[in-house]
Design brief:
It is built from three helices and two strands. By secondary structure, the protein is α+β, with helices and mostly antiparallel strands. It has a two-stranded parallel sheet. The radius of gyration is 15 Å and the shape is globular. The N and C termini lie far apart (36 Å).
Amino acid sequence: MNYHKKTINDVDVSGKKVLLRCDFNVPQDKETGAIVASLPTMRALLSRGAAVIACSHLGKPKGQRKESLSLAPVAVRLSELLGQEVIFAKDVTGEDAKAKAAALQPGQ
């Protein structure tokens, strides 16, 4: 078996868009380390000129969108922790997500 997997340190991410799956499905009413734990990876990618698209979920019970399960508060907190604007898309597909991903610049 090949256990020699590449990490973000082995790949040139400058000028590339990187899809980063994050475990942001955290309780919204408590302090948590889950958002903070993702910061070193995000900062490393951003500092090396990547445009980072972070994705996560809180749920969509029975296919219905619930405002109480929005990741918008996580985006606000992430903006504070990173010290820069985090652009929030309302869904992972559709025109809003496509437009925001297309407009993303290196370091955003």
